[in-house]
Design the sequence.
């Protein structure tokens, strides 16, 4: 079973490389054509002229794009080439409602859809160690599992269509809160005059230990904010979360705090930096 | 080199057991006598009648109590028995100012003081895997290291007297923020109707992964809040942090949010529960 990869950005490109490494990649497509040409050549696979041609050439079409509208546009444009029984898997982060709309479109062609957003950062995409949260039919996931195993280490079926995206929304809220926690605490440490690398080492080994501190602690105190995960994208995700929470009449206080801080950072022009750029607001002024 | 252990509570008792296991424990003392009698018998060591007698009988006096006033009271009462060149190590969490006051008192007897607060929870104390943040003279730490190695896996010299407590303050702020992040996100997940054990499994493997989620996620969704780390103690620590931040003219927004939530939980009578009891405020009402 071979896959086609649509969307060859910071996450999609390393995913395509891992699929190729496991001999699971047939073809690629990207909105910016030059990127697709380069990667197809690097990996020795076909470059599809359109998403529809990609769907014709692969058993599974994987999508990894940035926004809800992009994902639906790709789905619409691959429909003509989609074979009955084929599988479309969206690895992007979009709302549950968008996932359900995509599933409806795919089902109209007698094909199958899974929402399968991922977590683990660019590192996870490169190393093939992503965690993948899957919504949709369990038997479709079992068919697709050999392909997903090229991308991630933990692949968990969360429930019906949209439940993968629900799990991802929870993940994004937790990441926002951890970003607030880690940057505020390290800013405090800097003001207390602590040796910051030593501080990060010791905190990582205790009850405050977390992925974000381990992966982004040293870079943030050095003022390096290369993504990683772009602030502007996390803001987009958190707005989706807030809409979902509003519909449940639920307040997400930590996510609200992050959205306020992110808005300030975006105004300052830091939207393309890693989310750890939040440290800019928390570190000592003096 | 043998140690005496003062304070045999949730953290101190397992620490004493690990010292005994490494043949580093000579004697114990506890404010509630019955606890000391029981543990001395269990471990086959002396029970000191007073902190002063404990100081006479040990090369290193270790202190693990709950509050600043308790720690200073213990230091005052062990001074008469303290030998020149002896070492007193405070493993409690107190303010930097209290640590400096204790150091002044100990130095008046030509003895040496280290502030050495720990992190890693009750699990860390039981397994001897605590992270220990040390302030004070580096050569004193090197002398004491064989004893501390019975308690912890990472022992880091953070700087002069008080810098161990400064690092611990940063740790407590980070833990407060992570508690807010994890409980808010899991409350959101419960409202979205997600399978919670699956959700915790998948989140723990990605960019939101953290110690607190791994150790307290399942228990909190089951409504089990056995400490662990008592809410009332974390509140005490966060108040110390806030005082320290005020002195630096620094706002700790996440810690403030936690203090507001903790105040509400204390009013509801949950102060003796684990800090994950914060989930009570975040989980679905319906």
Sequence:
């Amino acid at each position: 079973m071979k896959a086609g990869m649509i969307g060859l950005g910071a996450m999609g490109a390393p995913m395509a490389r891992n699929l190729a490494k496991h001999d699971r990649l047939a073809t690629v497509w990207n909105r910016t054509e030059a990127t697709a040409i380069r990667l197809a050549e690097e990996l020795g696979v076909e470059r599809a002229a359109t998403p529809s041609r990609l769907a014709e050439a692969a058993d599974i079409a994987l999508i990894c794009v940035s926004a809800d509208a992009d994902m639906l546009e790709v789905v619409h444009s691959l429909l003509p080439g989609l074979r009955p029984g084929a599988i479309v898997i969206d690895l992007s982060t979009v709302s549950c409602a968008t996932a359900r709309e995509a599933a409806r479109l795919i089902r109209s062609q007698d094909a199958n859809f899974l929402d399968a957003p991922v977590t683990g950062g660019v590192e996870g995409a490169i190393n093939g160690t992503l965690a993948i949260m899957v919504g949709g039919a369990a038997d479709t996931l079992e068919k697709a599992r050999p392909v997903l195993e090229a991308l991630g280490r933990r692949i968990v079926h969360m429930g019906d269509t949209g439940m993968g995206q629900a799990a991802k929304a929870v993940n994004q809220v937790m990441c926002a809160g951890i970003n607030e926690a880690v940057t505020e605490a390290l800013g405090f440490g800097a003001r207390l005059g602590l040796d910051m690398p030593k501080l990060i080492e010791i905190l990582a080994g205790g009850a405050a230990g977390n992925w974000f501190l381990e992966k982004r602690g040293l870079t943030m105190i050095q003022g390096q904010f290369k993504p990683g995960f772009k602030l502007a994208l996390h803001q987009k995700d958190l707005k989706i979360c807030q809409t979902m929470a509003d519909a449940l009449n639920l307040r997400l206080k930590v996510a609200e705090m992050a959205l306020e801080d992110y808005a300030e950072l975006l105004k300052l022009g830091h939207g393309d930096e890693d989310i750890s750029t939040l440290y800019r607001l928390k570190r000592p002024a003096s």
In short: The longest helix of chain A spans residues 163-191. The CA atoms of residues 52 and 244 of chain A lie 32 Å apart.
